[in-house]
Amino acid sequence: MKISDQITAAAVIGSGQQEWQTPASPALDAVRTALEQQPVEQRLLHAASLVVLFETAGAKPARAVIAPQALPEPDATPVCGTRFTSGLRQMLAGVQDSCWSESLELLRTHGKRIPAELVPAALELATRSRGLRFLTRALTGTLGRWLAAQNENWQWATGGEPDEAVWHTGAAEERLHVLGAIRKQDPARARELVAGSWESEKSEDRKAFLDVLGERLSLDDEAFLEAALDDRAITVRRAAADLLSGLAGSAFRDRMRGYAKDLIALNARGMLRQKTAELNLPAACTREMERDGVEPKPPKGQSIGERQWWALMILSRTPLAYWTEKWNTNAESLIVAARRGDDHELLLDGWAAAARPGDAEWATALLAVRSREDEHRQKLFQILPVAAREQELASRMENLNAVVGHARHPWSRGFTQRFLEAYRKQTAGAPDWQLGSTRPLVRTAAAHAHPETNIEAEPDSPLAEFAAIVAFRRLMHEAILETN
Predict the structure, then answer these.
(1) Residues 187-239: pLDDT tens digits?
(2) 257-276: pLDDT as tens digits
(3) Distance CA 204, CA 235 (A)
(4) In sequence order, which residues have a C-beta less than 8 Å from that of residue 470 and are 6 or more positions away?
(5) What does the alpha-carbon distance between residue 191 and residue 232 come to, in Å, rounded to a whole number?
(6) From CA 418, how far away is CA 196, in angstroms rounded?
(7) Quick one: DSSP state of residue 132?
(8) Are 353 and 365 in contact (CB under 8 A)?
(9) What is the DSSP letter of 24?
(10) More confident site: 163 or 284
């Protein structure tokens, strides 16, 4: 028996259960006297460390056997030209790297790919930034897939069929990635995988899986989501209710219309007998309502009564089209009627929460009367078509941080000029320290501004940085058209 095995056996039995003597070993002979002066527990631990070091010192390292790999297939997609490649190289080195995502979009739009010498760096960047992976996988071509097969950190770029084995054995992030890939290709199979392991999953994972199933949602998912309304975790129940409330044709939406049927009354009030929207608060939160996501108690810190809370939850999950169809009117008229009543804040909050893609009329009308920044405001702006969004934001230039936060799309020339005019006006005469604090805002704006914008600016000023970013983007827009 090796000395290390003897020490292990002694440790398993326990030094207090036996009389343990330091064994004879070349690893211990030189320090035997010092060891014998120590308590038995320390002597055992020190002997173990010395013996393990002694035994491994002479071990030969294992030799890896690497099977030869076939070279990647030739790629028919043309590479970008020299100037565009130079721009990509600069960004990978950290120069104007905020323009990287847009440059990938240019490559995809013009049917070109990343040159071979930059593929490893592009893969590494996308490994750190998940949002870049979809485009990077497509734009690194056959070489990218070949390299990814050799590096386990780049497995996301292999481009093959999603590996269901990873769903069963992988870490949480890997499982979400595979589930998302399967959902894009085969929505039904993704749902089946989630259903198969649902009962054994942690609540945070069940919630994350529902978020993935939200992509390519259809009535085929209805039965599964209905079952999730009975989940033991409130976060999962909320997620299921949110998905069902956006699923056209679902029984859930019909039930919400039923709860909402008598919730609002349009009454003629005042001397002018103007239509006023008034709430008829629910008398109780029934079991059926609770199952459909109407929570009996408002969250702690919410200054709202229980019945108002029930009404807010019903409003937030009732399709907005229900109200315009019910009274044969439009969103603006209903909002005007709501503002005449005492319950206008609750009504507007509920309708804002209920807004979904396609509710542009409601988004426009709600934004016209809601000035405060809250969780729904960003969503309302994103629902608007780009031209309408810019028109709304152009009238709100007094708060440039909010404007830039909501305008995360490619800007038109006119909107870019409106921003620059407002910025110059608001920073005229400002001290250097105050101008410096605007640099993050200016950098973000420059990433979305129209690339043909030309401006004059003082050296080293925030607008000079704006001009440099826009000029770099303009160069990339021009260079993508070149073939050499």
Answers:
(1) 999 999 999 999 999 999 999 999 999 999 999 999 999 999 999 999 999 99
(2) 999 999 999 988 876 778 99
(3) 8
(4) 446, 449, 451, 453, 455
(5) 19
(6) 54
(7) G
(8) no
(9) P
(10) 284
pLDDT band at 377 (very low <50, low <70, confident <90, very high): confident
CA distances, 243 to each of 12, 226, 247, 381, 446 (Å): 55, 10, 6, 20, 35
> How is 417-451 classified by DSSP, letter by letter?
HHHHHHHHHHHTT--HHHHHTTHHHHHHHHHHS-T
pLDDT confidence tier of residue 361, bands split at 50, 70 and 90: very high
Beta-carbon contacts of 458 under 8 Å, excluding residues fewer than 6 positions away, are: 464
Q: What is the largest CA-CA distance in the chain?
A: 108
Contact yes or no for 364/389 (Cβ under 8 A)? no
Centroid of chain to Cα 272: 50
C-beta neighbour count of 52 within 10 angstroms: 15
Cβ(327)–Cβ(334) below 8 Å = yes
- Residues 6 or more apart whose CB falls under 8 angstroms from that of 122 comprise 88, 92, 114, 136, 139, 140, 144
Closest Cα to residue 134, out of 168, 103, 157, 161?
A: 157
Give the pTM. Answer: 0.73
How far is 318 from 274, CA to CA, in rounded Å? 25
Structural domain boundaries in the chain: 3-57, 82-157, 164-247
User: How far is Cα 122 from Cα 92, in angstroms, rounded to an integer?
Assistant: 8
**Contact partners, residue 218, CB within 8 Å, separation at least 6:** 187, 247
Q: What is the pLDDT of residues 131-154, one digit of tens each?
A: 898 899 889 999 999 999 888 889
Q: Which amino acid is at 426?
A: Q
Neighbouring CB atoms inside 10 A of 326's CB total 14
Here the tokens at position 34 are 């010092």
Q: Using an 8 Å Cβ cutoff, are 57 and 51 in contact?
A: no
Record the tokens describing residue 401, joined without a space: 């941080």
Banded model confidence at residue 72, pLDDT cuts 50, 70, 90: confident
Q: CA-to-CA distance for 217 and 392, rounded, in angstroms?
A: 30
How many Cβ atoms from other residues are within 10 Å of residue 465's Cβ? 15
Tell me the HSE value of 2 on the side-chain side, using a 13 A CA sphere.
10
**Tokens representing residue 370 in the block:** 């809601």
Neighbours of 160 (CB within 10 A): 10
pLDDT value of position 226: 96
